[in-house]
């Protein structure tokens, strides 16, 4: 059964989608976190069940992040993506709060050639878990803010929120 809820945030209304999981803190594994107008974003579908209580742990962690009292998320995710995407997503999850890295460094981190930077970018663009899987921390080699499915203004807001030096680029 697919569950969903929404929550207000400094980025606009967030749509959280997940499913019950015995191993997840709070009992819900997160499948998607999206923002309004997101490129490739999710919308509520027929048959989904609205259940704010099922997402209490997740929304609590997100509120703490936006309040500035949480710098890491401790969540269970619904498995998704190709093997390559999962490898890229695991690499971006290691980028610390308040820092940035480049697409090229992510390629290096997963052992892909520099020529794979576009493939890395495509995998990052397919990230279904904005904010909690911090793709906003990946920037262009020249320091430019590039490629964020939630929009570059939101990417900049997240980086400013985290105090990342590149946020004003």
Can you offer a commentary on this structure?
Its EC number is 2.1.1.63. The chain is an alpha/beta fold. 29% of the residues lie in helices and 15% in strands. It has five helices and six strands; from the N terminus they run ββββααβααβα. A hairpin with a 7-residue loop joins β2 (14-20) and β3.
Q: Which structural traits does this protein have?
A:
169 residues; alpha/beta; Double Stranded RNA Binding Domain; Arc Repressor Mutant, subunit A; 2 domains; 6 strands; 29% helix; 15% strand
Q: What is the compact description of this entry?
A:
Residues 83-164 form the Methylated-DNA-[protein]-cysteine S-methyltransferase DNA binding domain. By secondary structure, the protein is of the alpha/beta class.
Domains, number = 2
Q: Give the strand content.
A: 15-25%
Poorly predicted regions are none
Structural class: alpha/beta
Task: Count the beta strands.
Answer: 6
- CATH fold-level assignment of the largest domain: Arc Repressor Mutant, subunit A
The sequence of SSEs as H and E is: EEEEHHEHHEH
Biggest β-sheet: strands ordered side by side in the sheet:
3-2-1-4
CATH superfamily of the largest domain: Winged helix-like DNA-binding domain superfamily/Winged helix DNA-binding domain
